[in-house]
UniProtKB/TrEMBL annotation, chain A:
It comes from the Bacteria. Its main location: membrane. CDD domains: TM_PBP2 (cd06261). Residues 81-294 form the ABC transmembrane type-1 domain. This is ABC transporter permease. Coiled coil: none annotated. The chain crosses the membrane at residues 20-43, 84-107, 119-141, 167-188, 220-240, 276-295. It comes from Streptomyces djakartensis. Keywords: Cell membrane, Membrane, Transmembrane, Transmembrane helix, Transport. It is found in: Cell membrane. Belongs to the binding-protein-dependent transport system permease family. It holds the Pfam family BPD_transp_1. It is a multi-pass membrane protein.
UniProtKB/TrEMBL annotation, chain B:
InterPro entries: Bact_solute-bd_prot1, SBP. Transmembrane segments: none annotated. Keywords: Cell membrane, Lipoprotein, Membrane, Palmitate, Signal. Residues 1-24 form the signal peptide. This is Sugar ABC transporter substrate-binding protein. It comes from Streptomyces djakartensis. SUPFAM superfamilies: Periplasmic binding protein-like II. It holds the Pfam family SBP_bac_1. The lineage of its organism: Bacteria, Bacillati, Actinomycetota, Actinomycetes, Kitasatosporales.
């Protein structure tokens, strides 16, 4: 009797580990191990001797921080980061602004066909990024785009959307088109969670719908706004699909337009996995710092406000 | 309730176990045992459409006799496959046979991925033009692949529109430039052609025609001459045309480009023997209105062309049956039955000389039905292909080309500067990897 009890308690103690085991194994195999390998790669390089032909002419040697210093001093990577910064400055405010606006509009009392409208705004999110970029790519090309056909008929100027400044707008437009719906749903869901008494009290105090939206709704969904901002920053730093898909259509998008595209080119175009790994590690660290730095700042602010 | 929960747990545990066995299976997969006798099965990575049907002929014919079975695994074309082969080779698991473009051979050889099959396919040499065969030896005594298809470059133009605008077919590049200007004068919204930075192979072929040899070796050193006088001449020529607006500067292979060809906004294309296939899909409405002529020359006395595209069949060092694989590679690219099937099923232009004017190549391609001697002319042009010289990092030169020339074409700026950048990047990459580079 005593022994079975002990065995039982022993088994219960071990049970959590047994349940954790599959997840741990999968995490180690498909997450930790590849990351570890990437870090290992980033500290190595290929050393060729002589003509480099024949067997044994190519060795993998320790490179130290060489790949990292090369990446950090590479002007193309810096330029790519700046391009993405410019792109992000358009995408994030526009996308979140629209998402908030749509969510607030859907949340007003007198709105017709709300479910249909919600679905219509959300639907582009269900379109895969590459498809969206291909689709918009066609619309941006003057020779095949119906928009340009209409502009031409009306005798209006036809801007080149695949060059210079307008290129940023063209790229941002794809991201905004695809991402607004998702962010709107997140904000809208938290708007729905606000108890009706709050509105009732506000109305009794004589607040107009606009005042309710600005003074009550927006502050109360602030946590969702922080969350969507956080996701948007990460998505922006990882921009790859849109410029890669538009690249064959124009001379203005280089193979190193965004940092991730440069990683892709170095690894799969130039066959230099080692420096690509180093750049990938740098991008990952930068993403972590930026996104969690933002989260922390946002949390601190909220705490301060709560204390007030 | 507890019952269903337990059942779900059991089910997911089973799924996990199945998953791990699948993983284990991936890890322990290995080739057949060593030995010349006994049945052999080979894996072949290729992107050629219809290759499985050609391989069926082998498996049912000569392969059955020799007990060598080949299985085709369809792949993406070009650079993507190179990366995949190198990755597989790193794990020691590259397939027995791979398709590789000529310019990729040095990269593969320098990674020790390709086996020297000179002992097994040496007899095949006589079937190919010297310039083609030389690409598979890299100038050594070894043989790293058997040529499959080639892409001798030619000039394609709209016969009807040339007549309409009173243009004559250019035989030199000077005449080509004149033709472009004349067309601009006659029809300002039309272009003779475009300079596209989207395919490095086109520029490489044009430079090859001008006599460039981008990579050469002397002793234990590589010499990179991308920025040589011949290539500079080509770059300046096209840069000049773009700058003065005589030709377009937008990339090829876009919906816009298709439309330009299909509607006669662009009336010529510097391309290669495989152009009929591309034109069939890009410009279906203009079928029968195009004609082919030799590439314009740098001087009237010359008669040379470059190549754009073309590939070979190679045996990997990871293969445990290199002799059997080499035997198949030689059959595939020299046997008349195989070559006929390749032409019919895959639409490739064979590297083997005798196949270029027989079988499927007695008739012109359907798109060029108006030009009865299309393939006879093509074979003559193929014979004038200038030698090419590839190095171990063509991929780097090619990606730099796309960015540097793309920007130069966009800004209509100096193509010479773009060429210098291509040279500098290529040399820097080789030095970084540790190659001995002269100068």
């Amino acid at each position: 009797m005593k022994s079975t009890a002990r065995r039982e308690s022993y088994g219960v103690k071990r049970a959590p580990y047994a349940f954790l085991l599959p997840a741990t194994i999968l995490f180690a195999l498909f997450f930790a191990l590849p990351i570890g390998y990437a870090v290992w790669l980033s500290f190595h390089k290929v050393k060729v001797s002589g003509l480099g032909l024949g067997s044994g002419a190519r060795r993998e040697v320790w490179a130290g921080p060489e790949n990292y210093t090369d990446a950090l001093t590479d002007s193309e990577l810096v330029h790519g980061a700046l391009r993405v910064l410019g792109y992000g400055c358009i995408v994030v405010p526009v996308m979140l602004g629209l998402a908030l606006l749509f969510a607030l509009m859907l949340d007003t009392e007198k709105v017709r066909l709300a479910p249909l409208t919600r679905l219509a705004i959300f639907l582009p999110y269900a379109v895969p990024g590459v498809m969206a970029a291909l689709l918009w790519g066609f619309l941006y090309l003057p020779d095949v785009s119906p928009f340009y056909f209409v502009l031409d008929r009306l005798g209006l100027p036809q801007p080149d959307l695949l060059d210079g400044g307008p290129l940023y707008l063209a790229l941002s437009n794809i991201a905004v088109w695809g991402g607004t719906g998702f962010n709107m749903i997140v904000i809208y869901t938290s708007l729905q969670a606000i108890p009706a008494e709050v509105y009732e009290a506000a109305r009794l105090d004589g607040a107009s719908p606009l005042q309710i939206a600005l003074r009550i709704k927006i502050p109360m969904v602030a946590p969702s706004l922080v969350l969507t901002f956080f996701f948007s920053i990460i998505a922006t730093l990882q921009v790859f699909n849109e410029p890669t898909t538009l690249k064959p259509l124009t001379n203005s998008v280089s193979t190193t337009w965004s940092p991730l595209m440069k990683v892709h080119r170095d690894a799969f175009g130039d066959g230099d996995t080692h420096s690509a790994a180093a750049q990938a590690v740098i991008i990952a660290i930068a993403t972590l710092l930026l996104s969690f730095g933002f989260l922390r700042a946002a949390n601190r602010r909220q705490k301060q406000e709560a204390a007030r | 309730m507890p019952y269903t929960k337990r059942r779900r747990l059991v089910r997911s545990a089973v799924a996990l176990v199945l998953g791990t066995t699948a993983l284990a299976a991936c890890g322990t997969e290995s080739g057949d045992s060593e030995g010349g006798s006994g049945p052999v099965s080979l894996t072949y990575w290729t992107w050629t459409p219809g290759m499985d049907k050609v391989v069926d002929l082998w498996n049912k014919g000569p392969g059955k006799e020799d007990q060598i079975t080949v299985t085709v695994k369809k792949q993406a074309s070009g650079d993507t496959l190179i990366t995949k082969i190198l990755t597989a080779h790193k794990a020691g698991k590259a397939p027995d046979l791979v398709q590789a473009e000529y310019q990729a051979l040095p990269t593969l050889v320098s990674n020790d991925a390709l086996a020297d099959i000179s002992e097994n396919v040496g007899d095949a040499e006589s079937s190919f033009a010297d310039g083609v065969w030389q690409q598979t030896t890299l100038g050594t005594d070894a043989v790293y692949a058997v040529p499959q298809d080639i892409g001798p470059m030619m000039f394609f133009y709209r016969e009807d529109l040339f007549k309409q605008y009173g243009l004559s077919v250019p035989t030199t590049w000077d005449e080509f430039a004149e033709t472009a200007r004349e067309l601009k004068k006659a029809a300002p919204d039309k272009d003779l052609t475009t300079f596209s930075a989207s395919d490095s192979g086109l520029f490489a072929g044009l430079a090859q025609q001008a006599g460039a040899k981008w990579w050469t070796t002397s002793g234990d050193q590589w010499k990179v001459s991308i920025d040589d006088p011949a290539t500079r001449k080509v770059a300046k020529f096209w840069g000049g045309l773009v700058k003065e607006g005589a030709i377009d500067n937008q990339p090829m292979y876009t919906p816009s480009w298709n439309k330009a060809l299909n509607t006669g906004k662009q009336i010529a294309w510097v391309s290669a023997v495989w152009a009929p296939g591309t034109l069939t899909t890009a410009a279906p409405d203009t079928k029968g209105k195009w004609a082919m002529a030799p590439l314009p020359q740098w001087s009237a006395a010359e008669n040379r062309t470059g190549s754009w595209g073309g590939s070979s069949t190679a045996v990997t060092t990871d293969s445990e049956h290199q002799r059997a694989a080499a035997k198949f590679a030689a059959w595939l690219n020299t046997d008349s039955e195989a070559l006929n099937a390749l032409a019919k099923e895959s639409g490739i232009y064979p590297a083997a000389k005798n196949a270029q004017t027989s079988g499927a190549f007695l008739k012109p391609p359907a798109y060029f039905s108006n030009q009865a001697d299309f393939y006879a002319k093509a074979a003559d042009i193929a014979e004038t292909t200038a030698p090419s010289a590839w190095g171990p990092n063509v991929n780097v030169a090619y990606t730099t080309f796309k960015d540097a020339f793309g920007a130069a074409a966009k800004n209509k700026s100096d193509f010479g500067a773009a060429l210098s950048e291509m040279q500098a990047d290529t040399v820097a990459d080789m030095k970084k990897q540790g190659f001995e580079v002269a100068r």
